[in-house]
Amino acid sequence: MEPSGVVEIVLNRVDALNAISTEHARAITSVGRGLADDETMRAAVLTSASDRAFCVGADLKERRDFTDDDLRRQRLVTRETYRSILDLPVPTVAAVHGYALGGGLELALCCDLIVVEEDAVLGLPEVSVGLVPGGGGTQLLARRIGWGRAADLTFTARRIDGEEAYRLGVADRLVMAGEARETALQLARQIAGNSPVGVRNAKRAMRLGMDAPLASGLDIEDAAWRATAFSADRKEGIAAFNEKREPNWPGV
């Protein structure tokens, strides 16, 4: 963890372009679950150790000899993997380069923000191999870019580059080749400079309220406001503003 409170989660199955095997899924889950209760963490960045790929999705070579029961058992494991990233209480940023396909793109979609390199290759190819996206893709992509655009990408299984991903809203920042990781880290550091209590409560309110009726969403926002407004962070933030200095956030 950086002194700023930014954590970098590195996908590191380089020999397989970070294909998600059962073992790799368990490793990602272990890291995600381990970070969930870390009160010193202020933001997380999901990156790759591979020069060629962010993540190419499920390890289909491992599944080649799977029985139906094997696949059912693995499914329990992989669902936890995606939730371990989606449920992190701090803002998360995916740094996408190279291939981000299937479950790899879904890992990025589990993050709050996505930085993509212009020559990256993204897609949800599951229907082309007799599957459907199972890491949240059918839900998260539509919430990001709307039904029609998500349906286009999901039903055709076509691949898009980083520029189109940015244009469609799949990604939030578009950068040149080789710049995704550093840009994502800089973005995370900027987020980490703000009130930890405020940022966590803002994320919680946005996540809980996203699919709620407006009236319910406003109640969720009010609860988040109250949890933040009477915190030590709010007192420090107001004091720092009036004293024209950088805040020293208590984080409570």
UniProtKB/TrEMBL annotation:
InterPro entries: ClpP/crotonase-like_dom_sf, Enoyl-CoA_hyd/isom_CS, Enoyl-CoA_hydra/iso, Enoyl-CoA_hydra_C. Its EC number is 4.2.1.17. The keyword Coiled coil does not apply. GO terms for molecular function: enoyl-CoA hydratase activity. It catalyses: a (3S)-3-hydroxyacyl-CoA = a (2E)-enoyl-CoA + H2O; a 4-saturated-(3S)-3-hydroxyacyl-CoA = a (3E)-enoyl-CoA + H2O. One of its GO terms (biological process) is fatty acid beta-oxidation. Belongs to the enoyl-CoA hydratase/isomerase family. This is enoyl-CoA hydratase. It comes from Phytoactinopolyspora halotolerans.
